[in-house]
Amino acid sequence: MRAAIAVLMLSLLVLGPAASEGCGDKFQRVGRGARFQRGYVALHPACVLLYARPQSPIAKALRDLEPALKRAGHLPLLVEQPEGLGPALKTGHYNVVMTDLAEVATIEAQARAAAVPAPSVLPVLHRPTPEVKASVEAQYSCFVASPGKQVDVLAEIDGLMERKVKDGSAPPPPKKK
């Protein structure tokens, strides 16, 4: 009898852990974990126009942001010359235009004249002080700061698109080329 109990206990010890895995144990094994290579994925993909003059302090930040927007599922277009902005607004349908705070007023006017419905303009602030942040928050519903985390920018774009979807002014998601 003791031998049968000993064999039973030994078999439970040997076979038990392989047969039953606790919560999350399967993720601890090599090669079977959750995959995070994709990163942030946009809930509402958008066509995003990135505009900054080459001498602008945010030009490099927007150039660096373009690949992250593509990976997230957005369709970005980077325009660095003032001559290219008007044709881009007229030929493409953009949901969001990201530009330097100094350019926002002129971009909004051009966007309203060129496209219906007009895209949302997302101001980009370069190293903002708390006072500048407070004044921009009072004037605009959202903005992004540079330098900053790309995830924060992507979340801000998703917030803008979420509002457009709720308003019913969002077009269908962009088609990938």
Describe this structure in words.
- The protein has 6 helices and 5 strands.
- It is an alpha/beta fold and 177 residues long.
- It has a domain at 47-167: 3-Layer(aba) Sandwich (Rossmann fold).
- A 5-stranded parallel beta sheet has the order 2-1-3-4-5, with helices on both faces.
- Helix 5 (130-139) links the parallel strand 4 and strand 5 (144-146).
- The mean pLDDT is 81.
Mean pLDDT metric: 81
The outline comes out as: elongated
CATH class of the domain at 47-167: Alpha Beta
Number of strands: 5
Q: Could you spell the SSE succession in H and E letters? A: HEHEHEHEHEH
Number of DSSP helical runs: 6
> What structural category arises from helix and sheet content?
alpha/beta
CATH topology of the domain at 47-167: Rossmann fold
CATH architecture heading of the domain at 47-167: 3-Layer(aba) Sandwich
Strand content bin: 5-15%
Q: What Rg do the Cα atoms give?
A: 25 Å
| The named CATH superfamily of the domain at 47-167 | Response regulator
